[in-house]
């Protein structure tokens, strides 16, 4: 069980005049899938960096408040220790590649090699990742000769291979086609089934509604709304904070407004069908 607790955290990049994260307090629970949403520049990546300790180990600047992993300040961990607890998939998969490996297979093995895992265990885990991320056709390819989407999948495999309890995915589907995007969310579901904590920065609210448990909405460095996915993604206040709502929620909110009703607002198509699909005596529209 890994707990992550941020208490009254503010952070400012070295040359910046304003805080990128402001007075954030939040506790992430093991086994839950969290979506971090909000407009560009609202502080999502900075929060991920604070949790993983890249702020302040890599990005300097001023940090206030505390970030704790399992009750211990994140700054007290050494990097190898944190790598095994928190897997971090960067927003840009091009920066994730080691640059020292000739093929995808070796790239995925890289972290395990550095951590000193036995050869057989490395092979076993790498094979499992190749299978999970459907990378067998690319296993022998040069990581730098892949498309953005292929590289994104390799980056995810290279992170999951250490079997971290917490997985941070910063916009993992930004370069993926709809099919591969769906695959990544299916992997997120598998990670949840394995009891892992997943923190995903993502703009695709329709998929968040389907796959995530909790949503945190950021605006200008502040956490402005948080709660269960259904609660947040059916709340019109999200729009006022420059966030987005699933299409189906927008439709039912507008329907309520036009008809002067207060019906429950579904956030997924499945919910809409379950609640409002044509039944005897109800065509779903009245
Ligand atoms: N390395 C940096 N140096 C200085 N300022 C930075 C740096 N990285 C981010 N910022 C600033 O910090 C603020 C928060 O940025 P952050 O990347 O955390 O937001 P974000 O919500 O992840 O944005 P996006 O959706 O565009 O990835 C922004 O104002 C951004 O300009």
Automatic annotation (TrEMBL):
GO molecular function: ATP binding
Origin superkingdom: Bacteria
Keyword set, alphabetical order: ATP-binding, Nucleotide-binding, Transport
Domain ABC transporter, first and last residues per copy: 4-245
PROSITE patterns assigned to the protein according to its UniProt record, in alphabetical order: ABC_TRANSPORTER_1, ABC_TRANSPORTER_2
Pfam families cross-referenced by the UniProt entry: ABC_tran
Family annotation (SMART domains): AAA
Family designation: Belongs to the ABC transporter superfamily.
Record-given protein name: ABC transporter ATP-binding protein
Species the sequence originates in: Bombiscardovia nodaiensis
Lineage, broadest ranks: Bacteria, Bacillati, Actinomycetota, Actinomycetes, Bifidobacteriales
